[in-house]
UniProtKB/TrEMBL annotation:
Residues 249-352 form the HTH araC/xylS-type domain. It comes from the Bacteria. It comes from Poritiphilus flavus. The keyword DNA-binding applies. PANTHER family: ARAC-FAMILY TRANSCRIPTIONAL REGULATOR (PTHR43280). One of its GO terms (molecular function) is DNA-binding transcription factor activity. This is Helix-turn-helix domain-containing protein. It holds the Pfam family HTH_18. The keyword Transcription regulation applies.
Amino acid sequence: MELSIARDITLLINAVGVGNCFLLSYLYVRQPRQTLNNATELLSLLFFIIGSVILNTIFNFTGYSELFYGFESISNALSFAIAPILYLYIRSFNYTNEEQDLRSPHLWHFYAYLCLVSLQLILPESLIGHWAKSIMDSLAMIVVWNVHFLVYTVLVAREFQKKHTQDLGIQKLIAGGIISIWAANLILFLYRIFVAPLSIFVYLNITLLFSGLTFWLLFRKFKDNSLKPGKARRKKVASNVLPLLDEEKLVRNIIDQKYYRDPELNIRKLAGLLELPYTSLSELINRRYSKNFNEFINGFRVQEVVDALESDSHHSFTIMGLAERAGFRSASSFYAAFKKAKGTTPTLYLEQLA
């Protein structure tokens, strides 16, 4: 009787945790455009995937998995994206010029597994479908998943060792929660292989860790979005500091000193060069320009390339050479920034000038 009650409570908490994950995913992605950036989009996707994985565990425990054809296979595929998306999310705080998005090579193995799932679901009775299912259900695939998670755990740890990620308390908590769940699953997997089988109820209890974390994150999210009058007044007073900044001088300094040419430039480094508090520069970019840091700096870089294309100075450089001189680290980030700013590609823009 007591065990039955414990199972019901565990199931209820996990169900609420699933709802919290989906709600957090929605809240993060619906932020105002000036505050919505690559990191919040990745975090939104991460919560959606984790919610789906926990929901699959609940379905398996309650026996409802058979009612939703393909959900378990899709959920297993999504689990392959958790570690790389977590890494891309943490990496996005380094303010590199490369966008951390779903086109990243770090997600290629997830797409490969998703292709296997698609073959198995679309062609379940065919030879290809059976072949795909045999690969997905093999012990080797479980080993591959755990090894890949271990590799990304190391990469995440290395990102946190960098100077400008030392104050990411919430991000460390999220990463720690996800990695702890993986570590617990790995221990239980080894126990199941070498000692004895385990009940699905044990795995359901593991997800309680992240369900508890979602309660705290959701509480914090609503708390941040509902400022008290006194706190709102302090925020308004703080925003009044912005008019004291000479924006024209600040922008001119960036252009004259060509700080944007540094491919490793981040917001903290630029704030130091401009002798400004990091928070003031961040607020200026967000409020006055409605851009994130990458968009703000890439604007200077694109303008330098445009100025070169419109003059005779570009003949001694290739277009990509101009982009690298302006501070772009990759062709993909340059072409994306150029098209966003000018509505066309650099080559077509040059042809229009001819």
